[in-house]
Design a protein that fits this description.
The chain has 279 residues and is of the alpha/beta class. Helix content is 41%, strand content 15%. The relative contact order is 0.14. The structure holds fe (iii) ion (2 copies) and zinc ion (ZN).
Length: 279
Amino acid sequence: MIYIGCHLSVADGYEAMGRTMSRFGGDTFAFFTRNPRGGKTKTVSPEDAGALLRHLQHERFGPLVAHGSYTMNLCSAREETRMNGLSMLEQDLEKMKLLPGNLYNFHPGSHTGQGTETGIRQIADALSRVLKPEMKTTVLLETMAGKGSEIGGRFEELREIIDRAGHSEKIGVCFDTCHVWDAGYDIVNDLDGVLRRLDDVIGLRRLKAVHFNDSKNECGSHKDRHEKLGQGCIGMEAMKRIALHPVFDGVPFILETPNDDSGYISEIRTVREWMREQS
Ligand code: FE
Ligand code: FE
Ligand code: ZN
């Protein structure tokens, strides 16, 4: 079985997100550690974080998947942007100390013309600066669609970042189904082949989270436009096969589909239905 949930707004605090997700019928969730457009971080009280941790335990939630800001780019050609990214990453990981044992996912970055090799080196350098052996957060590199100069559209790129960064026991991967498909991995006709590739290149033990999205575009389009479950080019049958694949057993699945609350509630219900049918 998998854990299922969606993104929630941190605006009302941590414990409120736990309660909302229980109301939605889910047992994991994602939240942006700061305003998605960047900017200042909201201060969280240890009391609020403690209340959330109790809720997670009591309701048997899976690991949470915090998401770094989209504006964080650890491999921009502009030094100022890179330094900004590094300090966002540091602050975010500091905040994650209040939620030990959970996951922090981010987009590796866009090299903005410097080339893939340089991009990979800069991302790895940033990680090697902030990762500490005593950390209780696992940092996840998200698989990307390979749009523009994005790093992470190929499993090999993520592997290289992990190898270069050191502290590799603190690094995992978040498998975004829309991104992987858009990047050219055919999870509809050859899911097992793609997962074998992921295992060969990165290792399945690093697979810590899934972003569960259908895609508006064809395999290999490099577009990155999410779609509701079953309404895109991946389709319901393939989405169901992914959710029920043994490789993902125990992994938190986060919906990032274009939905309002009632849409998420219904998608969560669908995924739960699949799990019930199977068991
Ligand atoms: Fe993402
Ligand atoms: Fe994603
Ligand atoms: Zn995306």
